[in-house]
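Standup notes
- DV: blocked on the single-chain target, sequence here:
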Amino acid sequence: MKTTKAVITAANPAEKHLPLQTITTAVGDSKPVLENDLDDLAASGIESVAVVLLPGAVDEYRAAAGPHADMLTFIEQETQLGYGHAVWCARDFVGDDPFLLMVGDHIFLSNSGVPCVKQLLDLAAEHEAIISAVQATDESKLHLYGTVGATRNPADPSLFEVHTIIEKPTPTLAEQELIIPGLRHGTYLSFFGIHVLKPDIMDLLGRKIAALEDGETIGVTNSLAEIAESERFLATELDGTRFNLGERHGLLRAQIALALAGPHRDDILTSIVQLLANSKA
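- DV (later): unblocked, structure below
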């Protein structure tokens, strides 16, 4: 399933500023989060990207895209009906093509030098299937993520056949429905923030949106759960880490990780030790 289109969602009013934040990359360059993510998309073979954002934010996001602005299509979510609605707003851009879905408020740090996006795209092409990246996540953070129940592929321990998907489960529900052998106790596989999807999810989202009542919103996880019940749905642990910038100190954690991944690691470690020595408990 060759994929050359991507959709980035950035329309959450509470987190619209996060893709615009400036970070220092592992090699010491300063750039917006959005440009950093677009670097990975472009390096992974993505040719065109739709960014779904709030009305009036196009100019800010175009500036934050840096040299990648020409590959972007901006789509304003005029009505705030949830994450699923934001994805559905990109239906005309997606057309009949598979696409990569990425949340705009995360940073994805590869451990191998191969972008996390490319790792996922390569697996989607190899297996010709829908696939979501997942990360082992402590039960204390399950309220932030959709989480999967799956069986491990015996031929590839990093690949999973998904049978259940639950949006932001409680630890009790996760213990009943989502335990995966081999994971540490209290740890579950939650979404990483990038998926490779088929275009028919847009029809499914459209039907759900048409059935919404006043005041209701729609996510994506329930639609993914329906798809997992009817066709092959894979998940994989990538050789990398996601950093949710919307978490408390999320940007700080991401920045520290980026600094430690670069050539100035020893200097950063020395600075951290000095800060710890001089800080008060």
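- Follow-up: The mean pLDDT is 93.
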